[in-house]
Amino acid sequence: MDVRRLQWGGFAIAGLFCGLAGVLFAFSKGSISPEVASVGRSVDGLVMVLLGGVQSLLGPLLGAALFTWLQDLVARETDYWRALLGGVILLLVLLFPGGMAGAFSRLRAPLKREEGA
């Protein structure tokens, strides 16, 4: 396999989807301003990946769904939702160091052994 070509291909596909996401975001909001791309938004993406798990492809998707659900749930309850959400995320990271995908795979492993035996 030509690793360099594969890396460039992956980079091009990622750029294509990022551009498409930007176009759809601009279309849905009607305009774009620098405040939209704040540091908090960058940290949100990192938190989504850490919540879901870094070692699987499904992990970041699970993390994004969980983060969005938690954000919606916590933001309705308090004005200090970022602090409360940070505490919840810290608790989840301590309880599930491999992310949610890692926790699901650990739960599924004994079930697979029982089926195979």
What value does the Rg take, in angstroms? Answer: 18 Å
Q: How many individual β-strands? A: 0
User: Which regions have little confidence, pLDDT < 50, spanning 5+ residues?
Assistant: none
Counting helices, strands and paired strands, the structural category is mainly alpha
Considering DSSP H and I runs of 4 or more, what fraction of the residues is helical? over 70%
Whole-number average pLDDT?
Answer: 83
State the shape: flat
Share in β-strands: under 5%
Order of helices and strands: HHHHH
Quote the distance from N terminus to C terminus: 38 Å
Q: Major β-sheet, in short?
A: none
Q: Counting H and I runs of at least 4 residues, what is the number of helices?
A: 5
Structure description:
With 117 residues, the protein is mainly alpha-helical. It has five helices and no strands. It has helices spanning 3-29, 39-52, 59-75, 81-95, 99-116. The model has no long low-confidence stretch (mean pLDDT 83).
Task: Considering the chains and any ligands shown, give keywords for the structure.
5 helices; mainly alpha; 0% strand
Topology:
Blueprint lengths: L2 H27 L9 H14 L6 H17 L5 H15 L3 H18 L1
Helix pairs in contact: 2-3, 2-5, 3-4
Task: Give a brief rundown of this model.
With 117 residues, the chain is mostly helical. It has five helices and no strands.
